Structure formats: structure tokens, C-alpha cells
Glycosyl hydrolase (Ancylobacter polymorphus), 434 residues
Amino acid sequence: MSRRTVLAGLAVSLPLMAGSGAPAQPNLATPVIPGTPGAKPVQVTVEGRNILVDGQPFLVRGVAGDGPLALLPGLGATTVRSYGEDPGPLLDAAGTLGLKVIAGLWVGQPRQGADYTDAGFRARQLGELEALVTKYRDHPALLMWGIGNEVEVDLADDSAVWPVIEEVAAMVARVDPAHPPLAVLAETGTDKVEKLRRLAPSLKVLGLNSYGDALYSVVERARKQGWEGPIIITELGALGQWQAAHAPWGAPFEPSSTQKAIQLRRYLAALDEQGVGTILFLWGQKQEVTPSWHSLLLPDGVWLEAAEAMAQVWGGQPPGGNQAPRIAALRVAGEPSAPFARWRADEEGAFTLDAVEPDGDLMEVRWFVMAESADRGIGGDAERVPPLFPEAVRQSGPSGARVSGLTPGHYRIFVELRDGRGAGATANMPFEVR
């Protein structure tokens, strides 16, 4: 889940509009620093549908990923989720900010070669995970242990998965009874939650990855399968690429950062009303269809409007009270309703941009062209970053760009806006050169 390196070869940056000063930075949460007298392991318990930390209700509100953590407490976040790397550095960093960590215990995925009919493999995996739990069970920033991530995905027969999740959950309950085990599924399926409830009774908390409008009903669907304990939406986003409409050549249409933020406000508010935990994906950068589809940050750490959505629902404030730029529309020039562009190799394409800076800040705009991804992973598996074509953007400015000189194929044009105060916006559109 590492953040991608800064994109190279971006087109020249240009100002968009002039700006004003920034309000004062909001106060961050009181740090609980490991090693100080106030830092001690917490007792995390489950009471009905609630998670308690040292007997007090705890709201799981946070992110998954490896982006800079310092912004999160001011947004109202309480929690960070990891996936399976050594959690020590994250626990230390989160602890200094008063954040708690759902520490991932990576369970091998059969689609990637994990063989759960091999008793030796299972024993080795369990031993490695037990060593991690033993090492970090007394860390003051630890909230709970997250077992696996969508281990059941893309399996015709998932029967081997549930006993493995149970043996890891039982190990956690034995080695670290102060921090409950959680397992993470890709959505509810028709019976996945019921299988987990029945076949992994040591679990105390249910984690579900869900996206788009499925978020409105995911809790109800899990309850209908019999889960009565706490639920955390361990990954959520405005739209999964598998849910999106596509261009004729299969390229899914990605919403702009502004469109994503509008949806995230709605989803977070609906889930908050249902009393479930929420973890947004991904606090950092990750190539998945595009470098921006699930990324809540630009490559240089600039935050997007999604951070404002988080703060609005969680009772926080974006850094400095700043507002991110808004993208009203990225359009094909001359065809404002077209969802994609097409032109011949001896022609050029043109795009227009409508954007607003709510605070009146000076903005820069960067345009770049990237090949359409030909490497599509399953369940978040790593994907290769498509090549860039920095010379293809022949003209660019605050209201649009012109593209030419490309060989026939499928591409995307991207635009990134930055306000100079740490906030930005992004949008892209697929196109075909014939």
C-alpha cells in the first residue's frame, strides 16, 4: 500500500486566480506519546454493537494508508488502519498524535498462491502473526487487530478461508485479550457474513470494504446475515471502478475529486447515523486504474476535498480552515456533454476546464497525459503505473489544454489543481486516438 513517487513530466504550472489569507490552524488532539507516563496499553472491549476503550465508547473514524498523519486529528479522525506490514512505525507515529491503530495481520490470499491445504504453510503463517501480536500487544496506540483483507475474493470455493481466519482470531484472543480481533471482507456477499459469524466465532468485530451507493445498505445487509456485534467499514470510497460506467473500449469513468467529496459527505453522514466505524481508502497514493481513483492525496501530499467531507461529518476542520479547489467540469471542447474524446492520429484533441477556488487563492494547474492502464489487479492487488507522455500536452492553461502527437491507442488526460496552501483537486477523462 506504499505511496507512489511523484509523477514526472507534468506540464508547466499556470496561475488561475488570486487569493486571500488563511484562518488559524485548528488545535490537534492531545498527544499520547509512547514512553511517557500517560502512555499505557488500553483495554478494548466490545459491548453489544459498541467498541469501548478503557470502558468509554470509542468512535472509529479514520483512514487506511501511509500518507502524513499530522492532518488527521484536526479533521476529527481517531484511527488509522494498516494492512500487514510491521506496524511498529505506524503505532509510534499515530501514538504521538493521539490516534489509535487497527494493525493489519496479513493473511495469505489463495488467488496469490497461499495454499491452505498445506499444514506447514498454515503453521508458519500463524507463528509469524503470533510473533507480531506478542511484540506489539502492549503498545498504547493499538486499538485492535485486523485479520486479512478480502481473503475470500475471486474464489469459486471459499471454504478453506474461514477456518484460517478463525485460527488467527483465536490466537489473537489468546495472546492479546485486551485488543479484539476483526476480519475484513469484500462486501457482504449473499452469505459471507453468515459464514464468518458461524465459522469464526472468536471474532468480535466485523470489517467490511464497501464503495459507492452500496454503502447505504451495507450495514443492513450484514445485520440480516446475523451479525449483531460492532461493524467497521474498513474501506470506503465514493465509487469503485467496478461500479463505474465505461467508455466503449472499457475505460471506466472516474469522478472528479469534487464529485467524490459530494458523495463521501453523503455516505459518511449515513454511516455515522447508523453508529458504525468508517475508514476511508486511501490516505496516500495508489495506482489502481489511475493514480487518483482511490487516492485522497496528490503525489506531493496535497489533500483533496475529501478531507473537508471527513471534517464536516466528524466535527473537525480542514487544515487552516482552508477549502480545496472545486472542479465544476472537465469537458471535451466543442462537445460539452461527451463523456470521452476521440480523434485521428493526425488531428489534435482539446479539453476545457471549469474550476473555482472558494477562498480566492492563487491556483496552479498541471496537465498531463498517461496511457490507459492495461494492468488491472483484483481486490486491490498491485498494478503497474502506465507510461506518461509529457510531450503530448502541446498547449495548456487555466481553462483548458490541447493534446496531439500520440500514436493510435487509449489514453487519459489528467488535470491537477493546487491552491498553494496544501489543498488541491483532480480530474481526468479517457480518450482514444485512432
User: Anything to note?
Assistant: The two ends are 35 Å apart (CA to CA). The first strand starts at residue 14 and ends at 15. DSSP finds eight helices and 20 strands in the chain.
